[in-house]
Amino acid sequence: MENFAFRPADPEARPGQQITVVNKDSAAHTVTATDGDAFDTGSISGGDSGTFTAPSEAGRYAFVCTFHPNMTGTLIVR
């Protein structure tokens, strides 16, 4: 997360993989699946990192920062 954007916006992961995200902004962000159940980092303060587990099923999972809805992306699980 940098400059109020996810980088990369469409990351790839293996099923069940642990994913660590780093917030390079000063504002807090989240990485929250839009379906509400697949994954959610909770609030990650500026300069901190958070970890979540990719879903166990292959697919495309849209996500958003709940604080900044213009920040969106898609996790691709293969």
What does this protein look like?
The protein is mainly beta and 78 residues long. It has one domain (12-77): Sandwich (Immunoglobulin-like). It is 0% helix and 33% strand. It is built from no helices and six strands. It has strands at residues 12-13, 18-22, 32-33, 49-53, 59-64, 72-77. The strands form two sheets. It has a four-stranded mixed β-sheet, with no helix packed on it. A two-stranded antiparallel sheet has the order 2-4. It is globular. The mean pLDDT is 97.
SSE layout:
Elements (H helix, E strand, L loop, with lengths): L11 E2 L4 E5 L9 E2 L15 E5 L5 E6 L7 E6 L1
Parallel strand pairs: 1-6
Antiparallel strand pairs: 2-4, 3-5, 5-6
Q: Can you summarize this structure?
A:
By secondary structure, the protein is mostly beta strands.
Q: What integer value in Å does the Rg equal?
A: 11 Å
Q: Which second-level CATH architecture applies?
A: Sandwich
**Class computed from helices, strands and strand pairing:** mainly beta
SSE series: EEEEEE
Low-confidence parts lasting 5 or more residues at pLDDT below 50? none
Helix coverage percent: under 10%
Biggest β-sheet: count, sense, barrel? 4 strands, mixed
In whole angstroms, the N-to-C terminal distance is 22 Å
Protein name: Blue (Type 1) copper domain-containing protein
Domain EfeO-type cupredoxin-like: 3-77
InterPro entries: Cupredoxin, EfeO_Cupredoxin, ET_Amicyanin
